[in-house]
Design goal:
single chain, about 350 residues, Immunoglobulin-like, five-stranded mixed beta sheet, five-stranded antiparallel beta sheet, 2 helices, Ig-like_fold, signal
Length: about 350
């Protein structure tokens, strides 16, 4: 029984019960990049997905996987498990990059994939859009311009859903109108957008498609402010400009406060340093001031008391003072001379 189920599983895999929905052929310019969506079954949302390069399924080469990035940077892959779409991006295209396969890895069984082809040209592509990724707002309209070179039938489709081929229709409840008033331009307008309208769409002409990813989001709230200038004119600013100005003020105010604090601290430090230096200078000057006393005694040949003249010498000052000294009894001539250095003191000498 197990062998039978195994054989049945392999047969269903080979007969296309497992399938991937993607583009069939995309026209791109040499050196550019292209993103390709690949829609898979919801039961495989947790499986590994990868891109395989080569025209033949059995001999294609794995170039990037969701669990292993491409070190060269030429290929990238992402998986949207909510919408069951993985997207592969190929950069710096050349005419050698033409055949690829979007593949889902099947555990204990054969992988399954969907083939797409790139038509790489040096000139203008057969079908292209201004931007492959666009943004619309809930409740509003979005317009897409598909540029084409042939006069075939044009249509606008959602990947894996229905298409609008005429001048009007709807896709998942979103109203779609289309026209070709401009030469070689297929203009599509989607109205009454909802967040559920986000996803991959295709602009198609015959067997050529170009995928477009639409993001539908809330529109940013904008307000206007009127500024009256001196000459009587009124300047209107959007809230983004006001926000930028407000953000600038947020930065300027703390920076100004910080600079002010630094200046005050530096000023106080300079004052304290000046006072400290002044105090140190006073102490040093007082410590260095010395008083020198010089005593000179004239020669005397008699005993007794004599009036002695004492000279006091001080730095910057010379004072004279009469003093009375007693000499010892002696018959000879005696002369005393002494120099004494002492610290200057307050009070009477």
């Amino acid at each position: 029984m197990a062998l039978y189920l195994r054989i049945l599983y392999i047969i269903t895999g080979l007969t296309g019960v497992h399938s991937i929905t993607t583009v069939s052929k995309v026209s791109v310019k040499t050196g550019k990049s292209i993103s390709i969506p690949c829609l898979y079954g919801s039961q495989y949302k947790n499986h590994v997905k990868y891109l395989c390069e080569g025209p033949k399924w059995r001999f294609c080469r794995d170039v990037v996987k969701t669990n292993k990035a491409d070190p060269s940077g030429k290929y990238s892959i992402s998986d949207d498990k909510r919408q069951f779409i993985f997207t592969v991006t190929i950069n710096n295209l050349t005419n050698k990059n033409t055949d690829y396969w979007c593949v889902v890895e099947i555990n204990n069984g054969p992988d399954y994939g969907g083939h797409f082809q790139l038509s790489v040209t040096r000139g203008i592509p057969r079908l292209y859009v201004d931007h492959q990724r666009i943004t619309g707002y809930i409740g509003e309209n979005i317009t897409i311009r598909c540029h084409h070179s042939n006069s075939g039938e044009m249509k606008w489709c959602r990947l894996g859903r229905n298409c609008v081929t005429g001048s009007s229709g709807s896709i998942d409840g979103a109203a779609v109108t289309a026209h070709m008033r401009d030469p070689n331009v297929f203009t599509v307008t989607m109205s009454g957008l909802k967040s559920e309208d986000s996803g991959w769409y295709l602009c198609a002409e015959g067997d050529i498609q170009i995928p477009v990813y639409l993001t539908v989001t809330e529109k940013p709230i904008t307000t206007t402010a009127h500024t009256f200038t001196g000459d009587g004119t009124i300047t209107t600013l959007k809230n983004e400009q006001q926000r930028a100005s407000f953000d600038l003020k947020i930065l300027i105010i703390p920076l100004s406060v910080l600079i002010f604090i630094v200046i005050v601290v530096l000023f106080i430090w300079l004052i304290l340093r000046h006072k400290q230096r002044k105090a140190d200078s006073s102490v040093t000057a007082m410590a260095r001031v010395e008083v020198a006393y010089a005593e000179v005694r004239p020669k005397k040949k008699h005993l007794g008391k004599v009036d002695q003249e004492v000279i006091y010498a001080n730095v910057g000052n010379i004072r004279r003072k009469q003093a009375e000294m007693s000499l010892p009894e002696s018959d000879g001539e005696i002369m005393y001379s002494s120099v004494v250095t002492i610290k200057k003191q307050e009070g009477k000498y």
